[in-house]
């Protein structure tokens, strides 16, 4: 009997992340008497850094292993690095925040590591079982993380909503996978594509159904309209550090699997999915931006803005050319920096028992906390798409990809939406600098780790805006094997 | 020896489709969180039935293996889900999803 | 062909025979006394008080949940056992890794105190 080939070097970054997850879990239970759990955060950071270093050493080589179930190519590399950056920043902002809110459990860091592991598997899996297992590893960890604040009714409610809708979406995704398997007899993405091409199954009803089901399943994970209902509730209720992790990590992981599955397994259905995704992209941008205007809670506003950003990314997905797909990668990386940065500011502006998450709490903080406000302004302007920040370049690539493929209306609607979004992002900035504070916010404690995360996020946002070509060329090299 | 009359695989797929639909409708209309979750489990199990039918029909083991993984994942989901329900009941004294409405716009 | 099943047939016959022998022998040899207590529908233990649908302490739930999780993992042992002989040490090592991960989970719940009854 032929034994399966095992190449552990291929999944070394994943192994490191998983091993550190278990290590953190065990260290926590064996030293459970220690009150301050920040050291577990530092251990996690070491693990994430290690995994990132190992991932970088694999750059440039394309190797497939485990019977072709797993691939370490440029695409996987780009997403591994994105997820590890997200996890790194999340752990940094968590250390002070969890202590403050009384949710400093060792499991917190272990679950972040496990969720990261799931995301990495989603981006690198070329077999639907691996993609499914990665998705579930990520989702189940995050269901728990969303409900970490057991005493807070809103956090529990967020966990419930995310759990029920996430599990519901999983059902659809699975049914889609089952139909693909039934129609083509394979779960390998490449085999599915070649079977469809060789038998000319483009009008096969089972495959068309599976296309719809996969769109629903992934649509929930990336928070696209009309599958976005859970997003604002969950983002508002969950601990803020986890909201940042969800808004960036889960969205990026959802897109990584969506792009991989649709472009490598179902490329023949491009005309079909283009028309569906066109509608979803426009609806997602519009609903996200319009509803964001009327929000009074900043976490909720950022949740709707994250829906809108999913819409912009879907514009690139519809365009589907080289620039479009590398634009998706660029966008997700830029979004990771600016969104985690914005949530870090939200965290830093709160204290125990007083979260200050209403938008009017931001009135007049501009001169009281000048550096924090300046950072927040950078992130908000970047999300609004003002040059020379990362968000501007991301939107620029996305819309020019759409224009290149002659989706003029899509590009126009995207730019209009982007203009609408400037209103609510600028409103916060104006409040910060040009309004008198309604009440004093005093006694804020800035944890050094969170400040470090803030600095890193500012550097990332500025770097991607001023030197975008470095990251873009990396993204363009990354998608070479995919298309 | 018994002879099992050959049931066409299409019938299993129809059954799986019906179960899936019942699950979807149940998940959307029921108000008790545990019943909603049971409906979701029904959806997952109907998918398992599809996988096993396809697997037998296509003479490949992949579908059966996928069903194993789905079972394991569903168990993990159930553990987390029930923990969330317990937590919810402790803080709100209800698991009726209509009454879980602190967060809305 | 069918002769291979003879051993099973003999085994079933012995099992049924032994069970019948035990029941019949105790019926014939044992003595019987009728008392009011013995006639009661529920003989052993304490008399129940109140409704039988009462709340169950949460620790039962934790034990049940942990049982379910570890029990479901056994599902992967079945396909493994089928090919074990052909794959030899490879199968052994992969299962050792799998069980090792479960062991970490076990140590975790143990140290966490989830298995303590009091």
Q: Briefly, what is this?
A:
With 483 residues, chain A is mostly helical. Chain A has helices at 12-30, 38-57, 74-101, 106-124, 128-146, 153-184, 189-199, 205-222, 230-237, 240-265, 270-293, 298-319, 322-348, 365-368, 370-384, 390-404, 408-434, 448-466, 468-478; strands at 63-65, 70-72. Chain C has helices at residues 6-29, 36-39, 58-73, 77-112.
SSE map:
The complex is a heterotrimer of chains A (483), B (105) and C (118).
Chain A: H1 12-30, H2 38-57, E1 63-65, E2 70-72, H3 74-101, H4 106-124, H5 128-146, H6 153-184, H7 189-199, H8 205-222, H9 230-237, H10 240-265, H11 270-293, H12 298-319, H13 322-348, H14 365-368, H15 370-384, H16 390-404, H17 408-434, H18 448-466, H19 468-478
Antiparallel strand pairs in A: 1-2
Helix pairs in contact in A: 1-2, 1-4, 2-3, 2-4, 3-4, 3-10, 3-13, 3-18, 3-19, 4-5, 4-10, 5-6, 5-10, 6-8, 6-9, 7-10, 8-10, 9-10, 9-12, 10-12, 10-13, 11-12, 11-17, 12-13, 12-16, 12-17, 13-15, 13-16, 13-18, 13-19, 15-17, 15-18, 16-17, 16-18, 18-19
Chain B: H1 9-29, H2 33-58, H3 62-92
Helix pairs in contact in B: 1-2, 2-3
Chain C: H1 6-29, H2 36-39, H3 58-73, H4 77-112
């Amino acid at each position: 009997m032929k034994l399966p080939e095992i190449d552990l070097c291929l999944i070394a970054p994943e192994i490191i992340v998983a091993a550190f997850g278990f290590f953190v879990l065990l260290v926590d239970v064996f030293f459970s008497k220690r009150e301050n759990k920040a050291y577990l955060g530092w251990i996690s950071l070491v693990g994430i850094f290690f995994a990132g270093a190992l991932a970088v050493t694999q750059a440039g080589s394309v190797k497939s292993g485990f019977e072709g179930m797993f691939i370490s190519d440029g695409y996987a590399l780009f997403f591994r690095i994105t997820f590890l950056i997200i996890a790194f920043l999340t752990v940094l902002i968590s250390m002070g925040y969890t202590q403050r809110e009384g949710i400093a459990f060792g499991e917190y860091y272990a679950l972040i590591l496990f969720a990261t592991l799931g995301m990495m598997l989603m981006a690198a899996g070329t077999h639907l079982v691996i993609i499914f297992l990665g998705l579930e590893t990520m989702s189940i960890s995050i269901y728990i993380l969303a409900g970490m604040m057991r005493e807070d009714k809103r956090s529990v409610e967020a966990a419930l909503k995310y759990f029920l809708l996430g599990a519901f979406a999983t059902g659809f995704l699975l049914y889609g996978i089952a139909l693909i398997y039934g129609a083509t007899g394979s779960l390998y993405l490449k085999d599915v594509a070649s079977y469809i091409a060789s038998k000319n199954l483009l009008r096969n009803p089972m495959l068309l159904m599976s296309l719809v089901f996969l769109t629903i399943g992934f649509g929930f994970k990336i928070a696209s309209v009309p599958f976005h209902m859970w997003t604002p509730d969950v983002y508002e209720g969950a601990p803020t550090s986890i909201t940042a992790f969800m808004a960036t990590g889960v969205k990026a992981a959802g897109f990584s699997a969506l792009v991989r599955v649709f472009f490598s397994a179902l490329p023949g259905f491009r005309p079909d999915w283009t028309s569906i995704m066109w509608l979803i992209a426009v609806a997602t941008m519009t609903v996200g931006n319009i509803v964001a205007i009327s929000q009074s809670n900043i976490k909720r506003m950022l949740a709707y803005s994250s829906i809108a950003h999913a819409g912009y990314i879907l514009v690139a997905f519809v365009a589907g050319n080289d620039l479009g797909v590398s634009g998706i990668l660029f966008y997700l990386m830029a979004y990771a920096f600016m969104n985690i940065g914005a949530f870090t500011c939200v965290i830093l502006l709160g204290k125990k028992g007083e979260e200050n998450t209403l938008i009017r709490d931001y009135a007049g903080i501009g001169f009281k906390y000048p550096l924090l406000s300046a950072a927040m302004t950078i992130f908000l302007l970047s999300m609004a798409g003002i040059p020379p920040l990362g968000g501007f370049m991301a939107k620029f690539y996305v819309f020019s990809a759409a224009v290149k493929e002659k989706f003029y209306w899509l590009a126009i609607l995207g730019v209009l939406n982007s203009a609408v979004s400037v209103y609510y992002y600028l409103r916060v900035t104006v409040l910060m600098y040009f309004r008198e504070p309604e009440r004093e916010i005093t006694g804020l404690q800035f944890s050094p780790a969170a400040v470090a995360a803030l600095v890193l996020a500012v550097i990332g946002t500025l770097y991607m805006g001023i030197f975008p070509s470095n990251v873009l060329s990396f993204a363009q090299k990354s998608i070479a094997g995919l298309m | 020896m018994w002879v099992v009359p050959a049931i066409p695989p299409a019938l299993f797929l129809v059954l799986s489709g019906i179960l899936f639909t019942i699950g979807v409708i149940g998940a959307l209309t029921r108000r008790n969180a545990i019943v909603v979750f049971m409906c979701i489990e029904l959806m997952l199990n109907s998918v398992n039935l599809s996988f096993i039918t396809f697997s037998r029909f296509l003479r490949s083991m992949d579908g059966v293996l996928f069903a194993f993984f789905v079972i394991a994942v569903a168990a993990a989901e159930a553990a987390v889900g029930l923990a969330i329900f317990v937590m919810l009941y402790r803080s709100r004294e209800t698991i009726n999803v209509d009454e879980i409405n602190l967060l809305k716009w | 062909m069918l002769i291979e099943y003879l051993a099973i047939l003999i085994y079933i016959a012995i099992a049924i025979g032994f069970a019948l022998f035990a029941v019949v022998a105790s019926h014939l040899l044992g003595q019987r006394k009728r008392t009011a207590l013995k006639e009661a529908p529920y003989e052993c233990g304490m008399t129940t008080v109140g409704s039988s649908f009462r709340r169950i302490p949460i620790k039962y739930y934790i034990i049940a949940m942990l049982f379910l999780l570890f029990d479901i993992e056994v599902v992967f042992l079945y396909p493994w056992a089928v090919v074990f002989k052909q794959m030899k040490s490879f199968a052994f090592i992969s299962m050792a890794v799998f069980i090792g991960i479960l062991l970490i989970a076990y140590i975790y719940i143990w140290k966490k105190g989830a298995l303590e009854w009091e």
